[in-house]
Design a protein that fits this description.
With about 650 residues, the chain is mainly α. The chain has helices at about 10-30, 35-60, 90-115, 120-140, 145-160, 170-200, 205, 215-230, 240-245, 250-255, 260-270, 275-300, 305-325, 330-365, 385-395, 405-420, 425-455, 470-480, 510-530, 540, 545-620, 625-645, and strands at about 70-75, 80-90. The protein has a two-stranded antiparallel sheet with strand order 1-2. It is a multi-pass membrane protein. It comes from Chryseolinea serpens.
């Protein structure tokens, strides 16, 4: 146990409290009677509010101070000691606050959105556990402990995506997410084994000083990256994320903003020092493919949540590209800004869905409220939601005066630095990222236009009203944080308080990049307006190049077949062998029992009987009767005569 820096009791208390409140929410949610299920949502939200306040204190006390580290022995194996610990620096303290804060807002929003849901206790319990698991990844001081929480995040996401498990699509989506993530996690585990084999430590701080073998370290980092590919939905393990949209919308907001998919990017930034140059090149290429694939697929979607899901794929790809280009700061800045505006977009989409569902119940008019082709003209009926959509959508598109403009500018600047001069394959990555930024503007504002500005279609017959205040308040907070002011005083310079304190920023004059980026976005806005009524009908794009079918055929199906085969082998061969062994033991037991009774006991009883008979026989010599004495004397004489004659 050691500490790099001495912190106050308040810091220690708030750190424990920030982690304990979501876990307490998970536990208490199961003990409240269904009759008072509304208490569950209120109590869970209140506990997350306390957790947010505690994490704010942790952030305040840890910011720009030496890292806080706490380790204790977890277990020992084969002479090696494995520790569990906490490591808090600027990045982890900020991420802890964002995870807990966004989760609180999602909890609060869910009070209104999930009201009346039959499984509300299970929902809030798993929401709290999901938050706790993500917090564990953020504060973990070693990779083994990170892997444990990594798996807990996977389990809780499985439960939340399949919350409405009675719907076949929800049950299928949760299963797909679980299976695909296990594929990536297998690689993660191999990477951890290689790290242990060469460093005999999982401690993140200690690994920074580990002697590096380039070949093995490349293999180890690529193994870890496999887990990141699964968790952060990178190519080719991305198909589970759009399918997960069948879960409750607040869950989608939390998964896409600050928890599950963010975990991979956060971990990659945290162990960036392990990645060799060849490994980083692979990271950049994978991120680029994911970003492009997500952006072009979003163009063809009609489901409001799937548009946002594919946009998340694209934005995660941009973060991974930045990490591959050697700029964890740019990736983290975009991760932090994205957490707020993407959560806001999902909650705003949920507000549209919720309001239309309420109106449908009143008017008995039914249509798919998530299909933007059925919507239109909602600006007048949902003016607040429209404003929220515009602000958060502008941040996603990277418009000036938004947080998204700053973080995308940081990524573009990092890529310009990485590329240098001349022509190389890195220039293709830069061009692809510029195209992704352009397409993001197009599909974002096309979506907003079709929902709020287009002519009324199926919604014309409905009496639509804004969602309740408990849903509007979180949206307003997230929209406010989607502006530039929270990240940099200068709306055109990302070198603000956050960027300069989450890593070693390389000096670079980004003025020309900012100007070019602003012009590029304005051009994209023009294209978005001109093509606002255009519907991209390509089945290839609508189905994300059919990668889901490829994964089903070559990943999910073999895994399920292997599972069925092992189950069959277990039932027929292993269970058969165990049963045969049990029957054999039973037969042997019966045989040994019979042998014991018939032979062993018989022999013992026979010896005893013989001894008893012999004793009775010899006792008769001294029986006290004259007749017996005469008989035995005569018998002895006869025997003697016969022996003499012979």
């Amino acid at each position: 146990m050691d500490a790099i820096h001495t912190y106050s009791f308040l810091f220690h208390f708030c750190l424990v409290a920030a982690l304990a409140f979501p876990l307490l929410s998970f536990v208490l949610s199961f003990y409240i009677s269904e009759k008072y299920s509304w208490i569950t949502s209120v109590l869970a939200s209140f506990l997350l509010l306390l957790g947010t306040l505690a994490s704010a204190v942790v952030l305040y006390q840890a910011w720009n101070h030496p890292p806080f580290a706490y380790r204790l022995e977890w277990f020992s194996l084969a002479g090696y000691s494995f520790s569990a610990g906490v490591y808090i620096n600027n990045i982890s303290a900020l991420m802890l606050f964002i995870v807990t804060g966004v989760s609180f807002l999602v909890h609060l929003y869910s009070v209104g959105y999930m009201a009346g849901d039959a499984g509300i206790q299970r929902y809030f319990a798993m929401l709290g556990f999901f938050t706790f698991a993500m917090q564990g990844i953020v504060v973990s001081g070693n990779l083994l402990m990170t892997f444990v929480f990594w798996e807990l995040v996977g389990f809780s996401s499985y439960m939340l995506i399949g919350h409405w498990h009675e719907i076949p699509a929800a049950a299928e989506a949760s299963k797909r997410a679980f299976i695909i993530n296990r594929v990536g996690d297998a690689g993660f585990l191999v990477g951890l084994m290689i790290v242990w084999a060469h460093g005999h430590s999982f401690d993140i701080a200690a690994l920074q000083h580990m002697p590096v073998d380039p070949t093995w370290m490349t293999l180890a980092s690529l193994g870890i990256f496999c887990g990141i590919v699964g968790k952060s939905a990178q190519f080719p393990l991305f198909t589970w994320l759009p399918d997960a949209m069948v879960g409750p919308t607040p869950v989608s907001a939390l998964i896409h903003a600050a928890t599950m998919v963010a975990a991979g990017v956060f971990l990659l930034a945290r162990v960036h020092f392990l990645f060799t140059v060849p490994a980083l090149h692979i990271v950049a290429v994978v991120g680029c493919i994911t970003a492009l694939l997500g952006a072009v697929s979003a163009l063809a979607q009609h489901d409001i949540k799937k548009i946002l899901a594919y946009s998340t794929l694209s934005q995660l790809g941009l973060m991974v590209v930045a990490l591959g280009a050697g700029s964890p700061q740019a990736a983290l800045l975009h991760l932090f800004t994205h957490a707020f505006f993407k959560a806001c977009l999902f909650l705003a989409a949920g507000a549209v869905i919720h309001s239309l569902h309420q109106a449908q119940h009143q008017s008995h008019v039914h249509f798919d409220v998530q299909d933007i082709r059925n919507l239109g003209g909602l600006e007048k009926k949902l003016p607040f939601t429209f404003l929220i959509f515009v602000i958060s959508g502008s941040a996603l598109a990277g418009l000036p005066l938004t947080s998204g403009f700053l973080s995308k500018d940081a990524i573009l600047t990092a890529l310009v630095q990485w590329h240098g001069e001349g022509f190389s394959w890195k220039l293709l990555i830069l061009a692809a990222v510029a195209l992704v930024s352009f397409l993001t503007v197009v599909y974002t504002f096309r979506m907003i236009w079709k929902i709020f500005k287009g002519s009324e279609t199926a919604t014309a017959q409905l009496h639509i009203s804004e969602p309740p205040a408990v849903m509007r308040a979180p949206m307003a907070v997230l929209a406010g944080v989607s502006l530039w002011i929270w990240f940099s005083w200068n709306p055109f310079n990302f070198y603000g308080w956050m960027y300069t304190n989450i890593g070693e920023a390389k000096p670079f004059h980004s003025g020309m990049v900012s100007i070019a980026s602003a012009i590029w976005v304005i051009l994209a806005l023009g294209v978005a307006y001109v093509t606002r009524q255009v519907t991209v009908g390509s089945p290839l794009l609508l189905n994300a190049f059919y990668f889901d079918r490829l994964l089903k055929q070559f990943v999910e199906k073999p895994i399920l077949q292997l599972a069925a085969l092992t189950h069959h082998a277990d039932k027929k061969w292993i269970d058969g062998f165990l049963h045969a062994t049990a029957y054999a033991q039973l037969i042997v037991a019966h045989l040994t029992g019979w042998f014991d009774r018939a032979i062993v006991d018989g022999l013992v009883d026979g010896v005893a009987g013989a001894a008893k008979g012999l004793g009775s026989f010899t006792r008769s010599f001294q029986g006290g009767k004259i007749q017996l004495y005469i008989f035995w004397a005569t018998f002895a004489i006869i025997i003697f005569i016969i022996w003499t004659l012979l």
